[in-house]
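Support request from a user on the community tier.

User writes: "When I paste my structure tokens into the form, the page sometimes reloads and wipes my input. The last time it worked, I copied everything first. Here is what I submitted, just in case something in the input itself triggers the reload:"
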């Protein structure tokens, strides 16, 4: 799940980036509306967290433009708790509205609710390739009846490979889809993560599912 945070207050942006990343989301941050709109056109985000008071194009302007070409979930953040602002935000197509200062657990609960709403309409709860099953709700995998617990990154990586079952993904593609944009582009991290994932979902089993294509990338598929 990828989230875009458009917020010009560095402290709040860092706080959101850290908290959401710790909770398994991939988070890109930008401090102005123009860059935010640009990013939202380049990348598919599951949620945009949008501050109302931004320099140049403010949050309302960003919201209006985003809504012309995307139905991504949008949560507005504002220092003002006025009812009129809330109504305006919802009228312009925001999905939720949170007043600053807020407690992180409240933001997280709202983020989860919004994402759950869009998940239900977009994707199945479990993905299956051969005897490998991925339970999206519980961040857990199964091979046959054996349960495999995954870290947030392992889950994101396996989810990506399973969604693209049979397609080769390059290391650069994997980085751009599983790590956030500020991540230092060291493709070694992909190899290390793939190795850890294999140790859990392939090494103990005869039927290997993750395959390396030297110099190209990785593919997940049954080959028996
Ligand atoms: Ca602001």
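"...and here is what came back when it finally went through:"
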């Amino acid at each position: 799940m990828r989230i875009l945070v458009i917020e010009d207050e560095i402290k709040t942006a860092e706080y959101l980036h850290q908290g959401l990343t710790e909770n398994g989301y991939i988070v890109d941050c930008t401090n102005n509306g123009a860059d935010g709109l640009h990013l939202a056109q380049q990348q598919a985000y599951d949620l945009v967290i949008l501050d109302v008071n931004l320099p140049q194009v403010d949050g309302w302007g960003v919201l209006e433009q985003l809504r012309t070409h995307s139905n991504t979930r949008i949560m507005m953040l504002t220092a003002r708790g006025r009812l009129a602002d809330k109504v305006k935000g919802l009228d312009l197509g925001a999905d939720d509205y949170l007043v600053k200062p807020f407690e992180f657990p409240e933001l997280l609960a709202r983020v989860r609710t919004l994402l759950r709403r869009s998940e239900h309409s977009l994707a199945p709860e479990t993905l299956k390739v051969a005897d490998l099953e991925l339970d999206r709700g519980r961040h857990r995998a199964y091979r046959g009846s054996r349960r495999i617990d995954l870290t947030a990154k392992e889950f994101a990586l396996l989810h990506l490979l399973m969604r693209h079952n049979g397609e080769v993904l390059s290391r650069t593609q994997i980085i751009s889809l599983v790590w956030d944009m500020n991540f230092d582009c060291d493709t070694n991290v992909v190899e290390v993560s793939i190795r850890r994932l294999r140790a859990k979902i392939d090494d103990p089993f005869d039927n290997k599912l993750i395959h390396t294509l030297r110099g190209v990338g990785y593919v997940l598929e049954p080959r028996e």
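Agent notes: The reload is a front-end session timeout and is unrelated to the input. Residues 124-220 form a domain with the Arc Repressor Mutant, subunit A fold (CATH 1.10.10.10). The radius of gyration is 19 Å. Escalated to web team.
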